[in-house]
Write a structure and sequence with these properties.
The protein has 224 residues and is of the alpha+beta class. The protein has a domain of 101 residues. Helices cover 36% and strands 17% of the residues. The chain is built from 10 helices and 5 strands; from the N terminus they run H-H-H-H-H-H-H-E-H-H-H-E-E-E-E. Strands 1-2-3 form a 3-stranded antiparallel beta sheet, with no helix packed on it. The protein has a two-stranded antiparallel ribbon with strand order 4-5. The longest helix is centred in the N-terminal third of the chain and has 19 residues. The radius of gyration is 27 Å and the shape is extended.
């Protein structure tokens, strides 16, 4: 017997090469292959084998069922971002759970999260991050009200238009949004949601709007 690797010649007379020209048409008709592959179901027995090792080998069906239920409950608890803080009445009254997926994002704002923005700006006036905060905030709000599409730079408005923008309650009582839920479609055509909360561990990545030759394709940010 030889210990060397046997040579393998390139062969195009296989079904994979024969079907290669049909892949793009099939994806347009049925979606990506991982949407209807049987591999997911075929690999399910791996989890059953793992559960079986923790049974007493007697009432196997009941033991497997209990372990599967426990695993499902734990996953729901770890991934439950729709608790009391994310109730439908809090997010959007008169809306059902299904209709919330129609929105690109949903922000949560409760009156109990109000704070005094005037005092905040006064106490942190030496912070470069809040330089010209109020004019920039008004430019941003007016851009949203006029429906301008974001192009990496905020639209600048005249002083007259900025003065016409009246904030209800003034800057003494501003409601802070504590949760942002973003809806999006995954590569396998399934709907998914991401939840972002302000904090030291909340980071996000978006496509860059810069068009220079050496521009980085992504922007990175932290929700503070």
């Amino acid at each position: 017997m030889s210990s060397t690797t046997r040579p393998k010649s390139f062969n195009i007379l296989t079904y994979k090469f024969h079907a290669l020209g049909d892949y793009s048409r099939s994806i347009r008709m049925f979606g990506t292959t991982d949407s209807y592959t049987t591999q997911t179901g075929e690999l399910a027995h791996h989890m059953i084998k793992k559960f079986y090792r923790h049974t007493n080998k007697r009432d196997v069906a009941m033991a497997l069922t209990k372990q599967e239920r426990q695993r499902t409950r734990i996953q729901r608890q770890l991934g439950d971002h729709t608790s009391k803080e994310m109730s439908l009445d809090t997010l959007l009254p008169d809306r059902t759970e299904e209709s919330l997926t129609e929105y690109h994002h949903v922000m949560r704002a409760l009156p109990c999260n109000a704070f005094n923005l005037t005092n905040f700006l006064r106490e942190n006036k030496s912070d470069p991050a809040i330089k010209n905060f109020v004019p920039k905030m008004k430019d941003h709000l007016l851009s949203q009200l006029y429906g301008y599409e974001y192009d990496s730079d905020e639209h600048l408005f005249t002083d007259n238009k900025c003065n016409d923008l009246q904030i209800v309650g003034g800057l003494n009582r501003v409601i802070e949004s504590t949760i942002l839920r973003v809806n999006y479609t995954m590569y396998d055509i399934r709907r998914k949601q991401d939840v972002m909360r302000p904090g030291p561990a909340c980071f996000a990545i978006t496509l860059s709007w810069e068009n220079s030759p050496n521009a980085h394709p992504f922007w990175y940010c932290q929700v503070i």
